[in-house]
Design a protein that fits this description.
Length: 64
Amino acid sequence: EILMFPGRSLEAKRKLYDLITRNLKTLGIDEKDIMVILIEPPLENWGIVGKPAVDIDLGFKIDV
């Protein structure tokens, strides 16, 4: 499971799944044994420095 801010495109997620699977395969883990679950709570459900993340300039782009 990966907990992350929402905003990544389906293509970015496809690349992530592929990279995780390929890297774990190099360690001898069969791809059939790999399941990736993305958990993307909305920014208003993240509290950072006492504020909802939606109200904060995070300093990086999420919509990729």
